[in-house]
DNA sequence: CTGGATCCGAGACGATACTG
DNA sequence: CAGTATCGTCTCGGATCCAG
């Protein structure tokens, strides 16, 4: 977008759009990636494709493939093919993946623990929006 | 953890699509929400709308509004209007927001620290894909 | 300054069919 | 079993204009 080469000393902490770490974050910042990492971490062992599919209720095989590819590309997930018949493919966490898995699992756990509070906040918010005739927005 | 009506004893750990925590995760699992939480946490003080916009390089005001609304609705971000002229609106973290902020900031920090490794993994992956004539996929 | 409203294109995503 | 391919839908997200 814009490149301020030291133009503004008042903006010491910007999250630049060209920072490469953003591309990393954008891989993690999607629910299926979070679920895949969380699942692989929970089971503490490699899982097969259809195993993962059953575990991650609601995911389509397309999204699972896509997500696994992205995670594999970033070196977070390893893919091992056993040339048997029928074919057997296992997905496991790399050492990088284990690290991220701890972080993402923490988020998943937190979400689970605080679901009630957040659901309550939502209801309150929605009621406020509904009852306020002319909200000061 | 969650309750499945005992249909399948071989699937003890599924991530059910109807689990309410998923809706929570889906709010967090988008890059702008992660950035907003990270920014509010870093600055350790409420930020105004356009402050946030400048900090989060590349975000449009639409997405910023949308993201802030979602976070506010979930009780992670508080919105305070000072009826001055021109209007002044500040966004801060709630206690819930501070908690999530720690988790998401950890991810952001990790991404920043491991950007090199991941970029390298990507290059390796892409080259493998390019050189392998008939990949065993 | 802080948004809301609208239009629109690109990409996400789901469903289905097919293959080694 | 573990995918790939194709198609249609639909939401996300950017750009622009407008308002209190």
From TrEMBL, chains A, B:
It comes from the Bacteria. Pfam families: HxlR. Residues 19-119 form the HTH hxlR-type domain. This is Transcriptional regulator. InterPro entries: HTH_HxlR, WH-like_DNA-bd_sf, WH_DNA-bd_sf. Keywords: DNA-binding, Transcription, Transcription regulation. Gene3D superfamilies: Winged helix-like DNA-binding domain superfamily/Winged helix DNA-binding domain. One of its GO terms (molecular function) is DNA binding. The keyword Plastid does not apply. The lineage of its organism: Bacteria, Bacillati, Actinomycetota, Actinomycetes, Kitasatosporales. Signal peptide: none annotated. The keyword Ligase does not apply.
């Amino acid at each position: 977008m814009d490149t301020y080469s030291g133009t503004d000393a008042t903006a010491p902490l910007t999250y630049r759009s060209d920072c490469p770490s953003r591309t990393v974050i954008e891989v993690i910042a999607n629910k299926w990636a979070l679920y895949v990492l969380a699942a692989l971490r929970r089971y503490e062992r490699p899982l097969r494709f259809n195993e993962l599919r059953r575990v991650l209720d609601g995911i389509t095989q397309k999204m699972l493939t896509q997500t696994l590819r992205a995670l594999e590309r970033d070196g977070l997930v390893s893919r091992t093919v056993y040339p048997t018949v029928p074919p057997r493919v296992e997905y496991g966490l790399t050492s990088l993946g284990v690290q991220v898995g701890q972080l993402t699992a923490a988020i998943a756990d937190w979400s689970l623990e605080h679901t009630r509070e957040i659901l309550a906040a939502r209801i309150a918010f929605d009621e406020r929006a509904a009852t306020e005739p002319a909200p000061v927005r």
